[in-house]
Amino acid sequence: MAALFTGKVLMANRERDEVETERELGQALENKVLLLYFGSGQCPQCRQFSPLLKDFFLRLTDEFYVERASQLVLVYVSRDETEEEQSAFLRTMPRRWLAVPFGDAFKRELELRFAVSEVPAVVVLKPNGEVIVGNAVEEIRRMGPACFRNWQEAAELVDRNFLLAEDFDDWTRRSITDPLRRLKYKLDKKTEAKNKERKEDGEESS
């Protein structure tokens, strides 16, 4: 997915931080369903839909609702007329949202690539950039967070529990060797103490 944004800049919501390196983008987008939200804070239809999308996103990612955030990332592609309007809109949205900077020509590229002619529009993408849903606005309105399960299956995401199991194996291997490390540390300390004693004894006898 990061390939879609290679050489591009994304802004972290309500921060001046830029997520621009391939490594940072890779970490932000890897193994996740990506939503591209084309909208505007001034558009009447967007004003109706945006609160639904906000609630949808929070119910899948906020620890108030879920123990572990879903593998979901959202990038806002605005049609706001000014940077102030875009900033004002984003201040009302979740902090985890990313955004294409105001005035970036990349917004037009995305509109053309995904054939977005009207807003609001939510393009749902697999981690490899393939389209799952061309415009999920009605699906989100109708099903709410339940539609994420369908996208997750279509995206063929690597299950986080599997990754956690791998991490656990690494931890287990480390934990097995830890007592050996501690033992070696103790032996080293004893050897060091004995050498110090010998040195001191030698100095006294001389």
From TrEMBL:
<dbReference type="GO" id="GO:0005739">
    <property type="term" value="C:mitochondrion"/>
</dbReference>
<dbReference type="InterPro" id="IPR029520">
    <property type="entry name" value="RdCVF"/>
</dbReference>
<dbReference type="InterPro" id="IPR036249">
    <property type="entry name" value="Thioredoxin-like_sf"/>
</dbReference>
<feature type="domain" description="Thioredoxin">
    <location>
        <begin position="1"/>
        <end position="142"/>
    </location>
</feature>
<dbReference type="GO" id="GO:0045494">
    <property type="term" value="P:photoreceptor cell maintenance"/>
</dbReference>
<dbReference type="InterPro" id="IPR013766">
    <property type="entry name" value="Thioredoxin_domain"/>
</dbReference>
<protein>
    <submittedName>
        <fullName>NXNL1 protein</fullName>
    </submittedName>
</protein>
<dbReference type="InterPro" id="IPR012336">
    <property type="entry name" value="Thioredoxin-like_fold"/>
</dbReference>
<dbReference type="Pfam" id="PF13905">
    <property type="entry name" value="Thioredoxin_8"/>
</dbReference>
